[in-house]
Amino acid sequence: MSRHKFNHPSSAEERWKQILRAYRHRFGVARHTAFVAFMANTIGRMEHRSFNKKKATGEKIVVDKIFSPPVTQDYAHMEQQPADISPNSHLKLRKARIMKREEYPSTDYSFVYEAPPLSGNVINGVGETEPRRPRQPFFSRGYSGAWNKLERVFQSLNKPELPNFILGTFWMDRKRVGPVATRQRPVEDPKAMATEIKALARKHGAALVGIAPFTEQMRFEGFDLPFKYAISVALPMEREKMLESPSPDVSMHIQEVYRSVGLVAIKLARDIRKMGWPARASTNISPDTYEVLHIPVAVEAGLGTLGKHGSMISREYGSNIRLATILTDIPLEVDGAQDIGVDDFCLTCQICSTNCPPQAIFDVKKMVRGEEKWYVDFDKCIPYFVEHDSCGICIEVCPWSEPGRGPLISEKMLGRREKKVAASPQT
Known about the structure:
- Helices cover about 40% and strands about 10% of the residues.
- The protein is α+β, with helices and mostly antiparallel strands and about 425 residues long.
């Protein structure tokens, strides 16, 4: 049995075994949380003072010299291309008037590499023509990835309040998985059950909810997740707060919304388990954060479409949302992807690419693990993200994210397409 899944128990004895297993899981989460809390409030605080002192005096932090656990992930089969973290400079940059900062923070980073790590674009599979499960290049499990030292820089540059807030989310996430009720509710009508599940999600606070089949391309490498369906839930962020991006306050707000949408997923997974069906909440802030690719799930569940800036664009909220996922086996009718005209818009729009300080956004799609899609240059984006306590510029300057504009843009784009098809000569 997968360690990530509790199946329907066949007997009362099996049910008690599941309860014991759940307690062991929660003890493991508690032990991990306590360890991270100790490290964050001892070594983490010392590094925070040290790094920010260097930052204030202009002394560069040499990433290579930072202590971190050894890289245990195997990249030998990948092209050994080192990352180039220096910003691009091919576009004339702008600053959207809606953004509240007088100017965007600089791309003059407080850290340098003597020997850059393996390019995150290589790890992500840019240029690969064959499908494969993805591997997470950043926020790796146990600092085991190629960018582990920069992960340490990111956590040390953040205010100590942020890691401690995240620890509270770790503790909440102990309930992401658990025992399944012995009595299983039969499902004769997957459509009716999907309607019921969506109503429960909205009752728990979800602004958007959709259902997709769970496929291999939605799971990160290294996770055995034998589930049939994925339920995507979304919550919007506070627009006025996000217009201050990037800033420590914005970073904290993002974490707050991640916690809120994660709680929706945890409650919905609990409801499904009470029906006697396996269910696991997959959130963005947990020891197993990167088990699921939430954007592909949300796209296939009909919540929106991938945009040029690498985030999903929804008709209702644009990209001003955060996602979580519930994995389950309960029979459900799936929604399927929806075309709302995003590609038509992104092909000619350059607002996000010209507002991105490191110019990490490509104007054309890239081949990534056998699929041509919008992709953001990892090696350019992540250093800016690290330097400035996260970011969010591209998703906020996106016209779709302006309240009320999404439905109008979608209607306009789809209308133009229909007229173009109607005007084209019939073959």
